[in-house]
Amino acid sequence: MGKTCALLTAAVLLCVPGIMDYRAETAAASEMTESRKIALTFDDGPHPYYTEQLLDGLKERDVKATFFVLGKHAEEYPELVKRMYREGHLVGNHTYSHIQLNKSNHEKFKQELIKTNEVIEKLTGQEVQFVRPPYGTWDKKFEKELNMFPVLWTIDPLDWSSHNVDGIVKKVEDKAEENAIILMHDEYKTTVTAALRVVDELKEEGYEFVTIEELLFD
Ligand SMILES: [Zn+2]
Fold first, then answer.
1. Distance CA 198, CA 204 (A)
2. pLDDT at 8
3. Centre of ligand 1 from the C-alpha of residue 22, in Å
4. CATH, domain range 35-217
């Protein structure tokens, strides 16, 4: 009973025009004062075609993102990794071959992290600090051993399983909040279109897109 009332109240409140005006004003006000930080992260790239389109769109909008690249793709498309770094994006590690950590492959997983760090560092000249473990499976021991910091996510629009731009954008925007970390994959046309629309629309609401490093440590 209590729960139903709360849900109904929430639904009614959201439907009241005054509340919507208030929310719009709040968003406009925060844009003028201090913006809310949010981070776009892209896994599994670089992709020879879609990553380039995405980088073009981000550059046009002067927006910084974080790319958790696969070592094998970084080796295949080194110019794209160099470009990410040159244009102010953060390049992180997503293992060499997209290996999933399990009980019996600790050493192999660790070697993939090391190998990918070497590939990225050769291209950017920067030490790699951030890792997105595939499927989110991680062992805290690696943090000390490799001096790396794992980054998971708070919003997963499942862009890899959908070709519906509107659906992806809605899933992200419904959950958008300050300090949210959005998980996407820069290997689909729909993801590029959706990500750039999310940027345009959330910027209007007063969000500032930053790298993971800035979101977590500034
Ligand atoms: Zn992945």
1. 10
2. 40
3. 39
4. 3.20.20.370
Is the pLDDT at 84 greater than 80? The verdict is: yes
Rounded to the nearest angstrom, the distance between the alpha carbon of 31 and the centre of ligand 1 is 33
Strand partners, 189: none
From CA 160, how far away is CA 51, in angstroms rounded?
14
Q: Closest Cα partner for 66 from 153, 168, 170, 177? A: 153
Q: One of 43, 44, 159, 186 is an active-site residue; which one?
A: 43
Distance CA 68, CA 92 (A): 4
> What is Dmax (Cα atoms) for the chain?
60
pLDDT one-digit tens code per residue, 142-188: 999 999 999 999 999 999 998 899 999 999 999 999 999 999 999 99
Q: State yes or no: is 43 an active-site residue.
A: yes
| Centroid of ligand 1 to alpha carbon of 10 (angstroms) | 36
Give 20-37 pLDDT, tens digit per residue. Answer: 555 555 555 544 557 899
Which H or E run includes 198? Answer: helix 189-204
CA of 68 to the centre of ligand 1 (A): 8
Query: Which of 139-145's residues contact partners 24+ apart within 8 Å by CB, and which partners?
Result: 139/101, 139/106, 142/110, 142/113, 145/110
Domain range annotation of the chain: 1-34, 35-217
Whether 121 contacts 148, CB under 8 Å:
no
Catalytic residue among 47, 73, 94, 185: 185
Full-prediction pTM beyond 0.70? yes
* One-letter amino acid for residue 46 of the chain: P
